[in-house]
Design a protein that fits this description.
The chain is built from 9 helices and no strands. About 80% of the residues lie in helices and about 0% in strands. The protein has one domain (about 5-175): Tetracycline Repressor, domain 2 (Orthogonal Bundle). By secondary structure, the protein is an all-alpha fold. The mean pLDDT is about 95.
């Protein structure tokens, strides 16, 4: 991937996490990166193409991170705690989960981006379900849904109240339970 394309994706992800996907334009990207507006269009013909690339990239990154947790951490409780800390960094940086932010703006994303967002959250819930199964918890699938819902909700509250500790507090019972 070209350096400019990577810079565009990095900046677009950061701006989406801070402002929402509809909170910036190609002109904003070009000005901050220091390239011509046409350069953004060269890499991403439309903002829908940019959104799709962002979600696909984040799905890959998070999948790799969760795989690393599987291989590097011994217990499902440790893996769930690692996920909490992983997302807590967003709040510490005054950002939000990019896929959560894009889901909140669902009316303005393409059907393909919507499918990718659904896929992201299904993959995430599936991985969390595996952790609850390993913990021998009943109704692991619903627990996973509750975990992801609590995570996204606590991210909102942590951002609103500027208190990243809300995330750990909101999800503590899933790990200690």
């Amino acid at each position: 991937m070209s350096n400019t394309k990577t810079k565009i994706l990095d900046l677009a992800e950061s701006l989406t996490q801070e402002r929402g996907f509809n909170g910036f334009s190609y002109l904003d990207l070009a000005a901050e990166i220091g390239v011509k507006h046409a350069s953004i269009h060269y890499h991403f013909k439309s903002k829908a193409d940019l959104a799709l690339a962002l979600v696909e990239r984040l799905r890959e990154q998070h999948s790799s991170a969760f795989e690393a947790f599987d291989h590097g951490l011994e217990t499902p409780q440790q893996r769930l705690q690692a996920v909490i800390e992983f997302f807590q960094r967003y709040a510490q940086e005054k950002k939000f989960c990019m896929c959560g932010m894009m889901s909140a703006e669902l009316q303005s994303v393409s059907p393909e981006v919507r499918r990718q967002l659904i896929g992201y959250f299904k993959d995430f819930q599936h991985w969390i379900t595996k952790q609850f199964i390993a913990m021998k918890k009943e109704d692991a699938q619903n627990r996973a849904l509750s975990f992801v819902s609590a995570l996204e909700g606590s991210l909102l509250l942590a951002r609103l109240e500027d208190d990243p500790a809300i995330i750990a507090s909101g999800l503590h019972s899933f790990v200690s339970d």
